Amino acid sequence: MNAPIVDSSMTRPANCSDEEWALRWQLAQCYHLVDFMGWSEAIFNHISARLPGPAHHYLVNPFGLTYTEVTPANLLKVDLNGNKLDASPYEANPAGFALHSAVHGARPDVQCVLHTHTTEVSAIVQKQQAFDHNNFYGAQLHGRVGFHTFEGITLFEDEKARMIASLGDKHILVLRNHGIAVAERSIPTAFFLLWTVQRAAEIQCRAGTLPGEDTILPTETRQRCADLTAMLVADRGFAVTFFDAMVRKMQSECGPGW
């Protein structure tokens, strides 16, 4: 695995507050983690983080860079229409605006949105049932999933309202025949949720290749698992502890530049 390309200067953008700079570092680490875990998709897909304040500005990756090339300095700051708010030689991927700007504009409880379509997740969301909630991780997702019908590549303004209606008050959006989006109140919490979704998909795919009937979990057991997980992540320290541990693992294997 190649080391990330890091801006030689790592120049902090003008008028960037301490809070924004810390968020940029955490978001860049999240990009690197998603690649480290094998969940990135060449130069495609997006992770966004809403900046503090009433303006609904958010940070997103420059289009054309791999996830390992994302740095705190080169993340783009954009508004809900995708307009760049700081000078940058890069542009953003227009496919990211419809989903990310829609969620950031409509859900003030959400700071981070992650979108992936790994092989396992894409296979699961192609199925009519999607997640069956019968494994340890899938049970934790019970009652947390919204469903959005595939309309083609997500580029158009008119799809925003339908995606928001599909997400509702949930934190996971199954993009049927496409992939997944998770939306949570912080970058670490969103990463933990994505990890849970990915593990649920991997186990469900593997179980589907084995002979014999599945053991179906009762609805009350699924709900208890989902409720207990919600209690865990309500403690902000839990998700941060998990995120920081994964960053340390990544850096120990790939070097401190990650």
UniProtKB/TrEMBL annotation:
<dbReference type="GO" id="GO:0005856">
    <property type="term" value="C:cytoskeleton"/>
</dbReference>
<dbReference type="InterPro" id="IPR001303">
    <property type="entry name" value="Aldolase_II/adducin_N"/>
</dbReference>
<dbReference type="InterPro" id="IPR051017">
    <property type="entry name" value="Aldolase-II_Adducin_sf"/>
</dbReference>
<dbReference type="Pfam" id="PF00596">
    <property type="entry name" value="Aldolase_II"/>
</dbReference>
<dbReference type="InterPro" id="IPR036409">
    <property type="entry name" value="Aldolase_II/adducin_N_sf"/>
</dbReference>
<dbReference type="GO" id="GO:0051015">
    <property type="term" value="F:actin filament binding"/>
</dbReference>
<feature type="domain" description="Class II aldolase/adducin N-terminal">
    <location>
        <begin position="25"/>
        <end position="205"/>
    </location>
</feature>
<comment type="similarity">
    <text>Belongs to the aldolase class II family.</text>
</comment>
<protein>
    <submittedName>
        <fullName>Class II aldolase/adducin family protein</fullName>
    </submittedName>
</protein>
